[in-house]
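Q: Structure tokens for this one, please.
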Amino acid sequence: QVQLVESGGGLVQAGGSLSLSCAASGLIFSNYAMGWFRQAPGKEREFVAAIRWSGTTVYYTTYYADSVKGRSTISGDRAKNTVDLHLNSLKPEDTAIYYCAAAYKPNRTDYPLIRTYDYWGQGTQVTVSS
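A: Here is the predicted structure, written as tokens:
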């Protein structure tokens, strides 16, 4: 059974930084792309970032939404089955529930799409105060 558990959310001031972590169990990272999405109050869930390892190697590629590009980093630890998202220069509009998700062998072009992902975590709240 696949389980994704997010942690690390909280309240942070604008301009600050925050790290989120997703602990995955029941899946093999080399078969999945791992993504982060977020959903702000009254808005649709949107893509934030994704990471995909190249087979069983240590090499991976990352993908970012334009809204966070340059101020976010997605990384992972295959040995621990964790995926982290680090956000810098936070803005009030970054306030949202952040979700971790896993997609089984997706096409690269489909990484930003919600329907691509097979499993989702419960989410963790990030609130950025102005």
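A few notes: DSSP finds no helices and eleven strands in the chain. The chain has a mean pLDDT of 95.
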